[in-house]
Amino acid sequence: MPAHLHAHPPGSTSLAANHEAESPSDSVSSPRVFLSHDDEDAIAEIRRTLTEISHHNSKQGYPEPHSSFDKFLEAELQAGRKKSNLGVCFQSLSTWGDGEEHTDVKTLGTALWRTLTFQDVYEWTIQPWLSRKEPQSGRPLIRDFSGAVRTGCSTFLRTIAGHHSSFLGVTGSLDYSGLSLEEVKKHYRGQVAYVPEDDVHFPTLTVQQTLEFALQSKTPQRYQDRIPRYLEIYGRVFGMSHTMNTLVGNEYIRGVSGGERKRISIIESLATDSSVSCWDNSTRGLDASSALDYARSLRIMTDTCGKATLMTLYQASDAIYDLVDKVLLIDEGRMLYQGPAREAKRYFEDLGYECAEMQTISDFLTSITVPERRRFRPGWEHRAPKGPIELEEAFRKSSAYQKVQYDVQHYEDQRLGGKSVRCSQIDSDDGSLEDFKKAIQTDKSRFVSPKSPYTISVFRQVVLCAKRQLWQIRGHMSPLYIKIISSVVYGLLVGSMFYNQPQTTAGMYSRGGVIFYSSILLAWLQMSELEEAMQGRDILSRQKKFAFVRPSAVCLARVITDFLIAAVITFLYLIVVYFLSGLKSDVG
């Protein structure tokens, strides 16, 4: 394996040349390396080259491979790919949950009773109209949030991303550059993405197949040649190049590690190419270096492609913290601070809090919400605001809150020109709403409706899902082998039970038994598909929200592939049973 060369700073020496006489102790304790003048010149040239490379990379702003990622995105834009900019503005935003502290777990008996008495149907259809709950009657999860994003934490991200189904209600204003939440859900679903912290993938797919499916579902046919380049870039940036042909795996199937599975989730989410991305604790399970690579990648995509990025991070290093523009501190659903990240530390120090030595800024901000960890400046122990209520009141009286209100008003004036949200078509630095719609339509296939949230046609979705289904079967062939062997064994058993039945009326009932047992056994062999179908529901739900493929396309693709496999299994079974049971072997 070749050795790595490292550039040394001026004044340091890695190899020493000494032409003086050696002492006996020197010859024993420390070996000497004698170099000629040519060797010294070669070493000096290597140092100059490495210094120039290091200086060149520092001028680019990002080390390799992130600088290549930045150049690649810029080349994509220069090649004619349009930006799909979409900002977020929220004002007086509150989310309300059910006030009940517990939920009853359904048993088999209660499930049957609710089904037979049509209680589920009643709760889904009639009850919402007869007894509507006011959102304010529930428990507040986040309270009166305001802010603008141009370029409980999970609750806030899900509220911004429009995932409101689990909430009792959401009040306030939520605007996406002139688009309402209903318009985004219906026509631009994939442009606002919520990325949860759970890593759920098909375990029998390789890393490359998982990422290739995500990229192909968001890339029209005319741009398919770019997918290998995207895979290469993403693999280099996140250190996944060596695992591309490895199964994703799970607790039963051996595959990649938990940290590598987290990177797969990140790359898959980046493939959505969403304009607004909400990342929920996506650094969980990553080491410090990988977490920094992830943050740099988001910073590059935000700057180069004009994205709006919101993310929750726990125990973020100062290197990651320096990459963000704004920080929002939440405790018990209350907004304790929102503003520039570089001003957050000074703001809380002015309130009387103290940041310990060698403590990261993110850890300092988190400690403010924990009574056992927060520290006060001398003399401020009784004057500093404490608890979420006092800190929220202090923030709303501060100049930082006035700056937030100014940013919201400036955002609306810039986007709306002082008019209503729904009627704005005014250009801004980020482009108009019409430019956004044109950019989205440009990235779609020719056979996709302009109002559809999907990128590729239904036919291509079915083909892509069928190919993924075949990939899954090939990645774990044991169930298929078991089915084939079982069909042959069942054929031998049934054929031996009704071996060589007479061709007269005496064998009529026996032949009916052959047909009956064959139907039951062949249907029983397909029961094993139910578990696999149920396990993929979470993945299907997430990919529907990402606007990868339609659920109907996935179901149709499964029917096609299952039919082909069932045809092979049925053929092998019937060949054995037909001739052993003495069924008619000619056309006469």
Automatic annotation (TrEMBL):
<dbReference type="GO" id="GO:0016887">
    <property type="term" value="F:ATP hydrolysis activity"/>
</dbReference>
<dbReference type="GO" id="GO:0016020">
    <property type="term" value="C:membrane"/>
</dbReference>
<keyword id="KW-1133">Transmembrane helix</keyword>
<keyword id="KW-0812">Transmembrane</keyword>
<dbReference type="InterPro" id="IPR013525">
    <property type="entry name" value="ABC2_TM"/>
</dbReference>
<feature type="transmembrane region" description="Helical">
    <location>
        <begin position="547"/>
        <end position="580"/>
    </location>
</feature>
<protein>
    <submittedName>
        <fullName>Unnamed protein product</fullName>
    </submittedName>
</protein>
<dbReference type="Pfam" id="PF00005">
    <property type="entry name" value="ABC_tran"/>
</dbReference>
<dbReference type="GO" id="GO:0140359">
    <property type="term" value="F:ABC-type transporter activity"/>
</dbReference>
<keyword id="KW-0472">Membrane</keyword>
<feature type="transmembrane region" description="Helical">
    <location>
        <begin position="480"/>
        <end position="500"/>
    </location>
</feature>
<feature type="domain" description="ABC transporter">
    <location>
        <begin position="116"/>
        <end position="357"/>
    </location>
</feature>
<keyword id="KW-0813">Transport</keyword>
<dbReference type="Pfam" id="PF01061">
    <property type="entry name" value="ABC2_membrane"/>
</dbReference>
<dbReference type="InterPro" id="IPR027417">
    <property type="entry name" value="P-loop_NTPase"/>
</dbReference>
<dbReference type="InterPro" id="IPR034001">
    <property type="entry name" value="ABCG_PDR_1"/>
</dbReference>
<feature type="region of interest" description="Disordered">
    <location>
        <begin position="1"/>
        <end position="33"/>
    </location>
</feature>
<dbReference type="InterPro" id="IPR017871">
    <property type="entry name" value="ABC_transporter-like_CS"/>
</dbReference>
<dbReference type="InterPro" id="IPR003439">
    <property type="entry name" value="ABC_transporter-like_ATP-bd"/>
</dbReference>
<dbReference type="GO" id="GO:0005524">
    <property type="term" value="F:ATP binding"/>
</dbReference>
